[in-house]
Structures are given as structure tokens and as C-alpha cells.
Amino acid sequence: MCFLCDVKHSAWSGRRGFLLAAAGSAATLAATPLLAQVDVGRSSSLRNLVPAEELESAATQEYAKLLAEAKAQGALAPPGNAQLQRLRGIAKRLIPQAAQWNDQARQWRWEVNLIGSKQINAFCMPGGKIAFYTGILEQLKLTDDEVAMIMGHEMAHALREHARARIAKSQGTGTLLSLGAQLLGLGQLGDVAANVGTQLLTLRFSREDETDADLVGLELAARGGYNPQASISLWQKMAQAGGGPGGPGFLSTHPSGPDRIQQLQANVPKVQGLYQRARG
Ligand SMILES: [Zn+2]
Fold first, then answer.
1. Predicted TM-score of the model (pTM)
2. Candidate list 56, 62, 146, 154, residue with the active-site label
3. Which terminus of the chain is more solvent-facing, meaning fewer CB atoms within 10 Å of its CB: N or C?
4. What is the pLDDT of residues 63-95, one digit of tens each?
5. Could you tell me the distance, in angstroms and rounded to a whole number, from the CA of residue 183 to the centre of ligand 1?
């Protein structure tokens, strides 16, 4: 069951960096439901240096590879699995909120899968390829609201195109140009796609990206009708699980310090109205 822990552990564990920037200013609960309530800036323009379509296609390949590996190990949840159905039900309420943050997401072919592994982990690749590990559901005993907060956070990384910007920053200009050329079909696409796909699994996001994902994810989940208070209980559980058997994967790259919880607390009132409207 725990194949990814062993096989991919090193790759996964380095995936993300973290911390929190200063909280956005207090916003009123405005009567403008179509506008964002959390205070985040525009996505980084650096991301434009890496073509989105090609990155998404590399992600699709990497995701398919991962699912095939899981299936071969008997660790891919079948469609009838109750936990998988639960995840897909939650995604169904969050995905309609996605286009507000990235218009391209209307064309994404979203997928949600569950992988049997003790590791505490979850991700959403560019293009909307979501996976949860059983470890994160079971070890943290997550409620639906808490699952929605994690899913929203991971979807936010994809919607805000943090991977595009991160890959652009990680490449030298020359490499980037050749990467772009190759991604555009002028070189050996297969090799480059595989290379980029692998990078997607080892990306370490910046603290700004993480803050961004926290706040955008909070709003996505609230708009989907999930209780924003769950963002607090989720990170409290994460903090308690710090040294648990699921570490160091998600927990090492998503430390649950007081800053993070405080910032979420400051933002919960901003999305409370969206939550109530969704429930009403
Ligand atoms: Zn994150």
C-alpha cells in the first residue's frame, strides 16, 4: 500500500517551501460576491515564459505515469471506493469556482484520484490533475470541510500557475529559451516533457506562493459551501501530526506555524459571507 512512500519519497518530500507573508489588510465583507474577498495580487508574469499548454501536457503525462504505477501496485482506489467518491463529491463543489481565478481552467480536464499510501500528501498539478493519499485522510481524520481546505489550497497552486513561475525562475535564460523552443515542438519534446513533468513533483514553492494558495484556497472552499473555520482546525491537526508517521512529506513543506494559522484566522471573516450564501 505504501509504495510511493518508499519509491518516491525523496522526490515528494522536497516539493514545497513555506512560510507566510504579512496578512492582507482587513477587508469588509463586501456585497460584491463575484469579486475576490481575500487580498492577493496578480499571478507572477514570469509564468508567461513557460507555455501553459505544454506544461499542462507534461503534467498530464506525469500524472498518468503516477496513476499507472499506483495501479500496478494495487494502490489506486477504484471508482467505487467510498473515500474516492467523497473526494470527487467535494471537488464537484470547488471546480465550478475555479474559473474565477483562471479563465483557462474552464478547458481543464479535471481528475481526482486517491492513492493508497501512509504518506500525508495531496497535490493538484497544472491542468487540474488532483491526487490525495490515504495517509492524509486517515492520519489527520479529516472532515469534509478540512478536505475542501486542502483541495482548495492545492487547486489554488494550479490556478495561480505557481509551477509555471517557479520553473521559469529556476531556469537560466538560455535554458529557458531552449526549453520554450523545445516545448513548442522545435526540439525533442518527449525528453523535455518528461523532465518538466518530474520537476512538477519536486517543486518547492515560495512562501508567497504558499500564502497565496492558502487564501485563494480558503475562498474557493467557502464559495463551494465549506466552512472556512475548518482551515484553522486543519492546520492545528497538521501541527499535531508534525512528527507522525506520515512525515516528512507534506508537513515538512507546509509547516503549520502560528503565523499561518493567524493569517487564516484574519481571513476567515472575509469569506464567511460567501460560505453562508453557498449554504443558503
Ligand atoms: Zn502549498
1. 0.79
2. 154
3. C
4. 999 999 999 999 999 999 999 999 999 999 999
5. 26
